[in-house]
Amino acid sequence: MTQQSEKQGTSSHPLVQKVLTTKIPVAELIGFEPVEIEGGRAVILLQAGPHHANPMGTLHGGILCDIADAAMGMAFTSTLAQDETFTTIELGINYFRPFWTGLLRAEAKVINRGSTFGFIECEVTDERNRLIAKASSTCTALRGDRAKGR
Length: 150
Fold this sequence. Notes:
single chain; Thiol Ester Dehydrase, Chain A; 6-stranded antiparallel beta sheet; alpha+beta
């Protein structure tokens, strides 16, 4: 998809740097690639293939949910302080059209960020910029003992 040098991210949060510079197990398993993470925004690309299909032959909805969840988590991470981590406390997704194979783009944006909670939305579009799915999540920042080891 992209070369390592093409990935963009200005956040100095350790999790953002880790995602942009190392292989993340779930990204390898599903085959998605984070390409931008900065300023409350993240973009993930997935080249969907037959191995992502459900029994009916279309892209499995869980794959769409996974890439949206990853993009939203990365967008929220880019708003965290150095000593903070986070967890997702709510996730929802709506599917608008079936998809089979091709390039998908999951673009997430932090819509509202308070001192603890954040609301994030993600649009998943195809190569023709058609809306395939839209997701939203609520994340909470973790600090102190709650952030340790996460």
